[in-house]
Design brief:
This protein is of the alpha+beta class. The chain folds into 2 domains: 2-126, 2-Layer Sandwich (Fructose-1,6-Bisphosphatase, Chain A, domain 1); 127-231, D-Maltodextrin-Binding Protein, domain 2 (3-Layer(aba) Sandwich). Helices cover 24% and strands 32% of the residues. The strands form 4 sheets. Strands 3-4-5-6-7-8-9 form a 7-stranded mixed beta sheet. α6 (170-176) packs parallel to α7. The mean pLDDT is 90.
Length: 235
């Protein structure tokens, strides 16, 4: 947050996406903390993603970390950037934390046990996806910084009452806490972009599936995700 409040220099990665000192600092803090508390569990982080597949392919359990998701939102200072930490077991997300530093808000969940939100009060409030009513119309979450022309085609068969532009992994959380029904992501994402948010959604009773209905899996040789759809109940 000190970096957020000050003047931050922006570098660019090989794929032309932005990188700030906050990405690096967050990575260092999280790596140190996880290694201290869970020394036996390996870590895959966006800022340390060059671990070869030959080394990680046999991992049965690992942390998947995005130290700063929504760097464009960070640079714009719109408050919608997040820190994401997920626990992955045998290719499936089991638990996840999505923290929103500029809003002092945290979403977390363990699949099969439930999901919660903590705000300024410090109280953990249980959250759950809502039951969608497609006939009455849906609230759809869409990317604030990565619009997709495929999205309009996908939504033609739906009645959309409201479109919510949201940045970073907060899009998952909007569905998880019952403020929206649907989040189709028909554009590129990486595994660390989605794992923690997926855990929160699934812990809250929603689903995250590829467009063909199959599960979204993790620790693939190519860490690029396929297109996927996040849904509330009844969809």
């Amino acid at each position: 947050m000190e970096i957020y409040a000050g003047d931050h220099d922006v570098e660019f990665k090989d794929d032309k996406s932005p990188l700030t000192a906050a990405d690096k600092a967050s990575h260092d803090v999280i790596m140190a903390g996880l290694r201290r508390h869970f020394p036996e569990v390996p870590i895959l982080s966006e800022e340390g993603k060059d671990i070869p597949y030959s080394e990680r392919k046999d991992w049965q359990r690992f942390w998947l970390v995005d130290p700063l998701d929504g760097t464009k939102e960070f640079i714009k200072r719109n408050g919608e950037f997040t820190v994401n930490i997920a626990l992955v077991e045998e290719g499936r997300v089991k638990a996840g934390v999505v923290y929103v530093p500029a809003q002092n808000r945290m979403f977390y969940g363990r699949v099969g046990e439930g999901a919660w939100r903590i705000d300024d009060s410090g109280e953990a409030i249980a959250i759950k996806v809502r039951k969608a009513d497609p006939a009455a119309g849906l609230t759809v979450v869409m990317s604030r910084s990565h619009p997709s022309p495929e999205l309009a085609d996908y939504l033609r068969d739906f009645t959309v009452n409201e479109a919510l532009p949201v940045g970073s992994s907060l899009k998952f959380c909007v569905v998880a806490e019952g403020r929206a029904d649907l989040y189709p992501r028909l554009g590129p994402t990486m595994e660390w972009d989605t794992a923690a948010g997926q855990a929160v959604v699934e812990a809250a009773g929603g689903t995250v599936k590829k467009v063909d209905g199959s599960p979204l899996s993790y620790n693939k040789e190519n860490l690029l995700n396929p297109f996927f759809v996040v849904k509330a109940e009844n969809l």
